[in-house]
Amino acid sequence: MENKNIDHLFRHHSGKMVSVLVRVFGLSHLDIIEDAVQDTFIKASISWRRQQPENPEAWLTKAAKNRVIDIFRKLKTEKKILPHIQKGTDFIAINEFFLDSEIEDAQLRMIFTACHPKLNPSDRISFALKTVSGFSIKEISSALLTKEETVKKRLVRARKVVQQSQLKFNIPVGAALPNRLESVMEVLYLIFNEGFHSNKKEELIRQDLCGEAMRLCQFLLKNEMTRTSASYALYALMCFHSARLSAKTNTSNELLDLKHQDRSQWHFPLIELGNMMMNKAVEKSEFSCYHFEAAIASEHLRASRFEDTNWDKILFWYESLHALQPMATHLLTMAVVCMQLKDFISAKKYLDQISPEDFEQRAYLYYAALSDYYSGTQQFHQAILQLDNALNTVNNNLEKEYLLKKKKRLLLV
Asked: 233: closest CA among 171, 285, 301?
């Protein structure tokens, strides 16, 4: 097994182990649990250099069970009030915690804990990636384009809130569930979006983040309480976007926009799965922002050629989305759609309502759209100036190369 595969296995198993052990010992011992899990993996990596087990996942599960005993001893030594572990019923109970259904339940509880409204919104995504997904501080820092020190502070802050607020390790019920579920879905959406459109310098797509967001979203769909129209729509959206991942770049690793993507490379089983999820999502007449985003993504996938895209329908869905959830990014995209329809007057109206500051690290998207507007209205000098602004603010190398090619074409006009 390659190191990369081992790292992947460790990461996914880490989230499982932390979640199960928190369920056994409680959130108040989260620090000790995370240290213990990390220690187990270090020992495993050393042991596996000599000989890798036939069933690595079973090996890690067994190691986790053994670690339960170690943690009990450690906490007992520190005079924590915990039940005395014996070989009889306690061992049977611990084994039950490691059943597949119980592991999934524990992970879903951890997701809801990581996305608790008492946690700062900027801390939730880091905390979820660390505790549920097993991402290292370095990986979180890399994924979110944030300094490692900042990630550490966010994790410390999140753990402090968990401790001080004495959060319960459960899935809320009744009136508390909808708001918490909304927070969970927002975090999963952000994780997926960072993977689908990465801000990293060298990588345009982070498939590990996309895959992780989809894996966590599946937990919502497996549980009767969290299986809602919105969670189905969110999963459909992820399926539709993931279906296009392999077509976003060509064999030379160059960024391709929708117009130039090879649509035969789209992954049709994922599109079919997304359609199934959307059918479930619209069984009730409750429409979330994820419904509208999935409808937009689906509309792009329906077109066998770029020229066949139904831009009027897409504009309608964006208007519906913006009415439900007003955002600068929606206004920007509506401007781009209007340009596809050659309606430059409406496009400019949308562009005038936003500014580059609205997009922070992605300000280049605003400048690029403004460049397209000037280009479409034959103001080529202004179009080049705005492309220069985009080039000065873009971080990803593939997107920079894409913008440079656009500039070269404009200079030939």
From this structure: 285
